[in-house]
Fold this sequence. Notes:
Layout (H helix, E strand, L loop, with lengths): L1 E5 L14 E3 L21 E2 L2 E2 H8 L5 E4 L23 E3 L6 E3 L5 H11 L2 E6 L6 H12 L5 H8 L10 E4 L12 H13 L14 E8 L3 H15 L9 E10 L11 H12 L1 H17 L16 E11 L15 H16 L6 E5 L9 E4 L2 E4 L1 H9 L6 E2 L3 E3 L5 E8 L2 E8 L6 E7 L4 E8 L19 E2 L4 E3 L2 E6 L3 E8 L2
Parallel strand pairs: 1-20, 2-5, 2-13, 5-8, 8-9, 9-10, 10-11, 11-12, 12-13
Antiparallel strand pairs: 1-17, 3-4, 6-7, 14-15, 16-18, 18-19, 19-25, 20-24, 21-22, 21-25, 23-24
This protein binds alpha-L-arabinofuranose.
The site of alpha-L-arabinofuranose has 11 residues, from loops.
Amino acid sequence: MQKITFRKLIGENYIYPELQGHFIEFLGSCIYDGIWVGEDSEIPNYHGIRKDLVDAFQKLHPPVIRWPGGCYADVYHWRNGIGPRENRPVTYNENFGTFETDPNQFGTHEMMEFCEMIGAKPWFNINMMTGSPAEMREWMEYCNRQESTTLTRERKVNGHEAPFQVEYWGIGNEVWDGGGKMTPQMYANEYRKFTSSCPSFGSGDQAFPPKCIASGPDGNKPKERVVWTKDFFKEMGKYRMPSLYGYDLHFYNWNLKQLQTEKKFDEKQWYDVINGCKELENVIHEQRCLIDAGLEALPKPEGPFRAAPRKCELIVGEWGNWHSSAFNARPALYQQCTMRDAVTTALTLDIFHRNTGDVRMACVAQSVNVLNSLFLTDGEHCILTPNYDVFDMYQVHQGAYTLGFEEKNKDPEVCIFASIKNDDIYVNLVNTSYSESKKIELKFKQCPEFVEAKTLYSKDPQNYNDAKHPNRVRCKEGKAPAREKDSFQIALPAASVSVYHFRKT
Ligand code: AHR
């Protein structure tokens, strides 16, 4: 039996809430028919935004949400999405086979209202490919400037007196492919040009400069991702360093070995997907080292204007399972989510939490109706996938501290993570075995009291939720584990995710 010993109940590293972030895009039915139904819809809504989705989303305390893409950001013109809705232009969306008209009803103000309702900070990705530094600068000004200018007066006329205070701005998306097919050298030049066009929004304590996030590599391409990061930083270091808050790596867990639906799989296909998601941990370590080495090699500051940044945050702006069937799906990139996706979602969040600091922010791709979703909408129904439950169970780690432990008789199929917040201890136990239940022992030097256990599992790992069976896979309260002196004996069902809560006495 695997034995876990907690010697000290003292937290180590702060777990940034932003590691549990989200991503939404004008793609498939993510926004139209997903988040946005319109004010006249029979589906209950808050000013056009689905009520059931907002109510469930805000329960997760989502820290940040990235928008409008993705690839779509590079063809999105923000001015199309402001002003009276009936006057907005209709454009066409070809993004990943969406092939729908885009009515531009969900624009900057609607996005900000959505963020306010669910309690998330926005991350806007600007249009680098078909846009310009001027267009980006005006969007930033429209959103964030305090002073009265023609643009900020327009914002007020459109219903928002106070600046939106959008903190994060992505400068380009996947620029090595859909975002412009650039080389690292080309991108470094473009990045410099765009970021030097950003307004600074004041100085001193009042300043609110945009936190600019550069487009990082495709995490699934080992050689290219190393070359990209090295060359990007090398090129950046040749001239005066621009502002660079973060570096956005994308990591999809591709399941493309053979055409298969996301719903039907055998034991081997289960493990292919489980093992694929674990690769992200090495990618994070590798990219962190490359970024740090890149910054270290930059010319040392000479004079007041040459200070090179000493830190650049690693961000995973898109992550999730991408099953081969998604390519042929209608709406585009629509996927069901089974227990297999819930387990990889849990493992991925564990990777972020364990490496908090090395990675600063991460957004699941995508939250609604696309790929690794938490929400699937079907007419009047808003289905919470098993991934929703994982985010719900794991929100206790936001703002907590990592908690160290020792493992004996390690079972490679059981993955463990623990955190502590004040007196509360949370232990995640993910049993990745397809068919075997597991027994584990948790031992404490100073034994806490058991508070509650939550477990997400389903008799069949292929189970999922849909309109007919919206709660087939749902997290349940578990029984108190058997206690013997200072240890607890826990039984984990096969293919399950559990969070055990204890409190220091
Ligand atoms: O999330 C779907 C797409 O995947 C995004 O638009 C793009 O950035 C990535 O390739």
